[in-house]
Amino acid sequence: MTALHAGPRAEAVAEALGHGADRLVHVTLPEGADPADALVSALADMRPDVILTGMRGDGGEDAGLLPYVLARRLGASVVTGAVAIARGPDGTLVVEQALGRGVRRRLTLRLPAVVAVSPAAPPPSAYAHGARRRGVIDTIEGVAGDGITGTAGAPGPSPEERPYRKRPKVIARAGAAPRPPTG
After folding, report:
1. CB-CB contact of 66 with 41 (8 Å)
2. Residue from 39, 173, 20, 7 nearest 114 by CA
3. Suppose 27 and one of 38, 111, 127, 169 were both cysteines; which one would form an S-S bond, judging by CB atoms 3.0 to 4.6 Å apart?
4. How far is the C-alpha of 176 from the C-alpha of 169, rounded, in Å?
5. Which has the closest alpha carbon to 3: 31, 18, 111?
6. For the purposes of burial, counting CB atoms within 10 Å of the CB of 16, is it exposed (0-12), middle (13-18) or buried (19 or more)?
């Protein structure tokens, strides 16, 4: 298993080596840069069958869109909220997805696939300091981009701006049917 991280420092995720990853590929990016282009480029070179991500990053401006961006740009299937995964028949992946109120759903995906792991998934394997020390960290230079358009540094579409317009309030009435007259 190979871990992939795009950011200024590898130490932020080096602990993954102690939880079962054999190798960590660190794509160096400047502080505050969007990692999507660098991750897509590295993943296109690596060509993995399964890409595991979190539901959201640990940074301050994460929107939780990275799994969707990766899947779209790599032409892969995507599923979020995974609590268990297993190889399926004929080059597929079977994913158990956590839904609200403890409900689970089993999905079968074609590979390659991007799977966003739910916080409700079982915890990672116990940390092993020896495995962390034996793990290899490879550093490659990344290209910072906007993460949406697919070209590094190109401006994305700008949102439409309109003046504020006051809208009428909608009054919802429970049991709006008229009452029969009494008396």
Report:
1. no
2. 39
3. 38
4. 17
5. 18
6. buried
How far apart are the C-alpha atoms of 114 and 53, rounded to whole Å?
Answer: 7
Compute mean pLDDT per 10 residues along the chain, 183 residues long, and list them.
82 78 85 83 89 75 82 91 90 89 89 88 76 76 53 52 79 62 63
Beta bridge partners of 2: 23
For residue 131, count CB atoms less than 10 angstroms from its CB and return exposed for 0-12, middle for 13-18, buried for 19 or more. middle
Dig out the tokens for 94 from the structure: 């079977």
Entry pTM: 0.68
What tokens appear for 44 in the block?
């296109």
